[in-house]
Amino acid sequence: MAAEPVHAPDRSESLAALLGGRRGAVDATLPAVAFGLGWVLWGLAQPGEPAIVAGSVAALVVGAAVAAWRWRRGATPRAVVLGLAAVAVGALIAIRTGRASDFFLLQLLSNAASAAAWAVSILFRWPLLGVVVGGLLGQKFRWRRDPALLRAYRWASWVWVGQYLVRVAVFAPLWLADRALALTVARVALAWPLVAACLAVSWWVFKRTLPADHPGIRHPQV
């Protein structure tokens, strides 16, 4: 029977390289920026006019442009449609309620739901970071049969829970106070900068948790 190949430990990998994230985070931010700018500028130019409608139209136009750009760059149809649908739902909620801050309500709820989903996945020993990375690497669920990898994914996934909780902690009071412009600024500040920090910290936690002689993220020791 042939011996299993021995892999040298690989520490040059990174979650940022595997997951990317910058383009998606920036793309998702642009419609929110368009909404905030459209709402503020229309309100200054036409006091008393429906500034929320103007902001919503600006967000939808930018959202459609981003969707077309992502389509041309090879994004999946599902991802393109879901991204544009999120913008449309946010705009409809804001128009319906008459509160500009409600454009960001879907973002607040999705981050709260994401924090809960990631925490539950860790507690049930199916950390979502492992599910995502294992799928990208074509490992399916072999990483779960490697106790060291499973433990590293679980600890690193807590950093992602923290990422979503940070957004909830910032967005919730601003939404309650109906601070639409502040929510726009927070949406930008907590997009790619926070994603980049999460990728870096979770990768550091992953490497610190994984034994020094482990061959790395690409080689589950089943």
TrEMBL record:
Organism: Virgisporangium aliadipatigenens
Key words, A-Z: Membrane, Transmembrane, Transmembrane helix
Transmembrane feature ranges: 28-45, 51-71, 78-95, 115-137, 158-177, 189-206
Name assigned to this protein: DUF3159 domain-containing protein
